[in-house]
Design brief:
4 helices
Amino acid sequence: AYLQKWAKDQNVSLALSEVYLNGSQGGEELARMVIDNLKTNTLKPLYEINDDVYTKIEKIAKGAYGAKGVT
């Protein structure tokens, strides 16, 4: 219930995986959401392929996790 409220408040799609309880039918909604998301979003890498390792780590930390920096 908490995650569902959070997702609604944040305007984020949410589907629960209930495959353990309901078998493959328990994952249908999640699978549809994943496919729809892949169709509508364009993937943009966080770093350039030629960036050095430190720069890649820093860009991932900042871009994916909201870090202020890497020490």
